[in-house]
Amino acid sequence: MHPNPAFRSTPTDENLAFARQRGFGILSVNGAEGPLAAHVPFLISADATCADLHLARSNPVGRACMAAPIPALIAVSGADAYISPDWYGAEDQVPTWNYIAVHLRGTLHALPEDALQPHVEALSAEHETRLLPKTPWRTDKMSEGTLPRMMRMILPYRFQITAIEGTWKLGQNKNPEVRARAAEALSHQPDANAQAIATLMRQLG
């Protein structure tokens, strides 16, 4: 996370809303032989105290917390884009990268295996709802015996959230005119991430 306070003033509720909407991130823990990471979908609880997720039974991140809960972090990334110094229309500028990232800090807990199916159903329901008017997929559409067989390969976990940190690096350290010129140039790039960052930079005014 960038240490400049100019990029870290986004209110906690906005950082939380971003992480909730994304619903996917990199879960990392310290393993016995070094850092471990897993890319995971997650579902944040209504009161924002925890996020439920699942991992493959063989995943070393999950195995690391079987004996006891362990400190963990979920890094949630958003749009990002390279910024050319030529776009600022000002002297003595350097290249940089603008981006959005939210870190959820907390502890990872193994859950009983009977928590898995409710979690899977809640997670799929959340994302199927976003696809409306498509008819939502449900677990009862699967052939008898198929779902239990597939779910034997994954295990449920709960990430207890203790802190939410966000970095929205959008050129807040530049004056509005310089930032606007960079946003204009960025908006003409073919990459959707670049265009998304341009929109956010313009919203700063």
Describe this structure in words.
- The protein is α+β, with helices and mostly antiparallel strands and 205 residues long.
- Helices cover 29% and strands 35% of the residues.
- The protein has 6 helices and 6 strands, in the order αβββαββααβαα.
- It has helices spanning 12-22, 60-64, 116-129, 146-151, 176-187, 192-203, and strands spanning 24-31, 34-44, 50-56, 70-83, 96-110, 154-169.
- The chain has a 6-stranded antiparallel β-barrel with strand order 1-2-3-6-5-4.
- α5 (176-187) runs antiparallel to α6 (192-203).
- The longest helix is centred in the middle third of the chain and has 14 residues, at 116-129.
- The protein starts with 11 loop residues before the first helix and ends with a helix.
- The mean pLDDT is 95.
Brief descriptors of the model:
205 residues, alpha+beta, six-stranded antiparallel β-barrel, 6 helices, 6 strands, 35% strand
- First-last Cα distance: 24 Å
| Lateral arrangement of strands in the main beta sheet | 1-2-3-6-5-4
Structural class: alpha+beta
* Total strands: 6
Query: What fraction of the residues are assigned to beta strands by DSSP?
Result: 25-35%
Number of helix segments?
6
Helix/strand order: HEEEHEEHHEHH
Low-confidence stretches: none
Rg from alpha-carbon coordinates: 20 Å
- Kindly report the oligomeric state of this protein: single chain
Net shape = elongated
Q: Average pLDDT value? A: 95
The biggest beta sheet, please?
6 strands, antiparallel, barrel
State the share of residues found in helices, binned by percent: 25-40%
